[in-house]
Design a protein that fits this description.
- The chain contains 31 helices and 20 strands.
- The chain is α/β, with parallel strands linked by helices and 703 residues long.
- It has four domains: 60-229, P-loop containing nucleotide triphosphate hydrolases (Rossmann fold), CATH 3.40.50; 237-448, 3-Layer(aba) Sandwich (Rossmann fold); 465-534, no CATH class; 547-703, Sec63 N-terminal domain-like fold (Orthogonal Bundle), CATH 1.10.3380.
- The strands form four sheets. It has an eight-stranded mixed beta sheet, sandwiched between helices. The chain has an eight-stranded mixed beta sheet with strand order 5-4-6-3-7-8-2-9, sandwiched between helices.
- Helix 25 (570-577) packs across helix 26, helix 25 (570-577) crosses helix 30 (657-675) and helix 25 (570-577) crosses helix 31 (682-695).
- The radius of gyration is 28 Å and the shape is globular.
Length: 703
């Protein structure tokens, strides 16, 4: 054989190898169609299954927390699904036996509703009440479940009236929300204002600075406290990586990211720089089914992605008995909520056994998805991060298709806390011996980051307290400015600033100096606009404006003060408040086509905008935020109050039905705040009551 022939044969062998490699690169049509398992995972997968049923036995950390709460404030820091709610329920039992009262506060209305149902079942309906803004039931019950904002408002009232809050134990669920940029301020206010005689039980996801939080609480409350930690998950977790050709491998080990994944990333990225492949979620579910990894929760980046994912899922082959059982359960639910009959995603639910769960869905559609998932009828749900934040239905597997998330303003990398909350849903206590987190390759996926975050400690809780007009008005109800300064000096921000040392004080605070400066700035504006007098006390306008515990109390107060909402119909009043609660600059085309006459609302809106024009100009001049005042939210709520059907409303105003439901329910919340002005604005309060009655109907509100 001559030299040329040898070279040619060698070339053809290399070409053949390259061709074979190329043949294994899946197209969009056949992504994940050849499910295979890395041999080293076989021992791990042999653990899959349901554990033997055993009588419930509390974990040591649960018993420790119950013993300590008798004598101390307690912060429980434990992974998602570890059993923190059980601690709360047992503590409530002990308080009830002594005829004591309990307030259970959570960050989400949906979570409050869920906890309320659990407590009604456990303690009896007559023993439980709920306060969420949407609901006010049995408010004098010994157990109150509600949102943290309602608890904060009750503390405002108690300080103003010189009374004591009617509770002996306050349980703050999801206490790590103290670090939430938007809502952490409410948690911090509650902790600052809560009387020290009230015992405090904080239930938190794992946090790295629990001792620092407790040191702050001990300083401001002058009561002893303890931290109870649970580091281990109740169900062990294995993190996997799914290649596009269907191969499942470990994500990594002690030496870092799996070498095969590193090689894939370097080669795959180069070959796939064109249009990114669309994920075939139906095929991914088939992979999971092949290895008994269902049910699964897929965390996706947007509502649209969740809805579109359903379209890739084919029908599931199952027994007639199982199919009929699902249909019966859904039919039973729809008898109570007939407005969901014919929902656009009902076919995916019944045929493909999958569901989409996010803020754009109707409230009771989400309840149906949750019930079917918890009951074991669904193979998968596609959700935004709201599920990780508090809705309780874990799965055997959590699927991650990107390593970033939308924070309300932009896409940012996941934090360790974000990731732990998501994968914390993997592995159901009592139903799984092992749970799985599956990382799927994609254009917005960084497996290396996921591997690093899963082994990282959660981020520390940082103070998010800031001054706003509602806080300023309500503090001036019951405190002099110097007393407010003392309150602000008790903030977690001040504590962290001092602890950071002299080098950080200039940046973070004496972060009380910064708060005090912000408070004085807000007071100056309130003086300039006539809500506070020269002696730093509320004027008569300031007094009633303080009862508007809303995001934009001054703008609404100005509209009331200038008379733009006087002598209007309930429909106009409902619509008139809606623009103040929509904080996104989202222009929406109104498609009424003169079918519905909204001229009355247009005239009222122009009058309202004109009345608040001056105060908005002063706000802008003084450097305060000026939210957009859009007409379409007013038109939408006005038409709903006029009796326009739900289907027609969504034709006229094309936003997600969950957003529409939220807009209407939040409008009802604002009207309830107007009812609080009965002493000074009796006619307006009466109209607000009538307006609420017009808004609360199916499918927004189910009585």
């Amino acid at each position: 054989m001559n030299k040329v022939t040898k070279v040619n044969k060698s070339f053809y062998r290399r070409s053949a190898r390259r061709s074979r490699k190329r043949r294994f690169i899946p197209t969009e049509r056949d992504l994940y169609e050849r499910p295979r398992l890395d041999p080293q995972l076989r021992p791990v997968f042999r653990q899959i299954g349901v554990p033997e049923p055993t009588p419930f036995k509390p974990d040591p950390f649960q018993l420790e927390a119950l013993e300590l709460i008798k004598d101390y404030d307690v912060l429980v820091s434990a992974p998602t699904g570890a059993g923190k709610t059980w601690i709360a329920s047992q503590a409530i039992h002990s308080y009830l036996t002594e005829n004591l009262r309990v307030w259970y506060a959570s960050p989400l209305k949906a979570l409050s509703n869920s906890i309320y149902q659990e407590f009604c079942h456990e303690f009896g309906p007559s023993t439980c009440g709920i306060l969420t803004g949407d609901r006010k039931e049995n408010p004098d019950a010994p157990i109150i479940v509600g949102t943290t904002e309602i608890l904060r408002n009750q503390l405002y009232d108690a300080m103003h009236e010189g009374t004591d809050i009617r509770s002996d134990l306050v349980i703050l669920d999801e206490a790590h929300y103290l670090s939430d940029p938007d809502r952490g301020v409410v948690w911090e206010e509650v902790l600052i204002y809560l009387p020290s005689r009230v015992r405090l039980l904080l239930l938190s996801a794992t946090v790295s600075n629990a001792e620092e939080v407790c040191a702050w609480l001990k300083k401001i409350r002058e009561t002893s406290n303890r931290v109870v930690r649970m580091q281990e998950r109740p169900v062990s977790l294995e993190t996997l990586f799914l290649f596009p050709d269907g191969l499942i491998v470990p994500l990594g080990g002690k030496r870092g990211l799996n070498a095969r994944i590193k090689k894939f990333l370097s080669s795959y990225t180069g070959r796939r720089r064109g249009r990114p492949q669309k994920l075939n979620f139906g095929n991914i579910i088939n992979c999971l089914r092949e290895f008994d990894l269902l049910p699964a929760i897929f965390f996706l980046k947007s509502r649209k992605d969740c809805d579109h994912a359903l379209e890739t899922c084919s029908s599931v082959k199952t027994t007639p008995e199982a199919r009929n059982k699902l249909k019966r359960r859904v039919r039973t639910f729809l008898k109570d909520f007939p407005h969901l009959d014919g929902h656009r995603q009902i076919k995916a639910l019944l045929v493909s056994r999958v569901g989409s769960h996010h803020g754009g869905q109707l409230p009771y559609w989400k309840v149906l998805i949750e019930k079917m998932m918890r009951g074991g009828y669904l193979e998968a749900i596609f959700s935004t991060s709201t599920v990780a934040a508090g809705v309780n239905f874990p799965a055997r597997t959590v699927v991650l298709v990107q390593s970033d998330r939308f924070n309300g303003h932009e896409f940012v990398d996941l934090t360790a806390t974000d990731l732990h909350q998501m994968i914390g849903r993997a592995g159901r206590r009592g139903k799984d011996r092992i749970g799985f987190a599956l990382v799927v390759s994609g254009p917005h996926q960084d497996p290396k980051l996921i591997h690093e975050l899963q082994n990282s400690s959660p981020e520390p809780i940082l103070s998010q307290i800031h001054i706003n007009f509602s806080m300023t008005l309500n503090l001036l109800l019951s405190h002099t400015p110097l007393e407010v300064k003392d309150l602000l000096d008790r903030s977690f921000a001040t504590f962290q600033g001092r602890k950071a040392g002299a080098s950080a004080k200039g940046k973070q605070d004496e972060m009380g100096g910064v708060l005090w400066t912000g408070f004085k700035r807000h007071v100056r504006f309130l003086k300039e606009t006539g809500f506070v007098n020269e002696t730093d006390r509320l004027t008569s306008d300031g007094y009633w404006a303080s009862k508007l515990r809303l995001d934009q109390p001054l703008l609404i107060a100005e509209a009331i003060r200038k008379g733009s909402l006087n002598n209007v119909s309930p429909e106009v009043l409902a619509g008139g408040l809606a623009p103040f609660l929509w904080d996104r600059e989202q222009e929406v085309e109104l498609r009424t086509k003169k079918i519905v006459d909204i001229n009355e609302m247009e005239i009222a809106f122009e009058r309202l905008v004109d009345c608040i024009k001056q105060i908005r100009a002063v706000k802008g001049k003084r450097g305060f935020e000026n939210p957009p005042i859009l007409f379409w939210p007013a038109a939408a709520v006005y038409m709903w109050a006029r009796g326009v059907s739900w289907e027609r409303l969504l034709e006229f105003v094309q936003i997600d039905e969950g957003d529409m439901a939220s807009l209407i329910m939040r409008s009802a919340d604002h009207l309830r705040q107007v009812i609080n002005l009965r002493e000074t604005h009796s006619q307006l309060a009466s109209v607000a009551e009538d307006a609420i009655e017009l808004l609360l109907r199916e499918p927004v509100y189910i009585d």
